[in-house]
Specification:
Blueprint lengths: L1 H9 L2 H4 L11 H6 L10 H30 L1
């Protein structure tokens, strides 16, 4: 629960502190909110990188979960 609170709390830090922007990109909630930065200029170059990063994080999470389940089943 604490991790979720930290992720929510840090989701918009990159908008307000530009020097922290690169560090906040590992937060999935930040990736989901990146399009808010350029609402006037939404196009594929704005939306595609965060979408691909979220898809990648999802794939990694599924792979890790499947690995844990395989270990538990054995």
């Amino acid at each position: 629960m604490m991790l979720l609170g930290v992720m929510v709390g840090l989701a918009l830090v990159g908008f307000y502190q530009p020097e922290w922007y690169a560090m906040t990109l590992i937060n999935p909630l930040t990736l989901g909110a990146l399009s808010m930065r350029d609402l006037a200029h939404l196009d594929a170059s704005t939306l595609l990188p965060p979408m691909l990063a979220l898809a990648g994080l999802t794939a990694v999470t599924i792979a890790l979960g499947a690995g844990v389940v395989r270990k538990v089943e054995v």
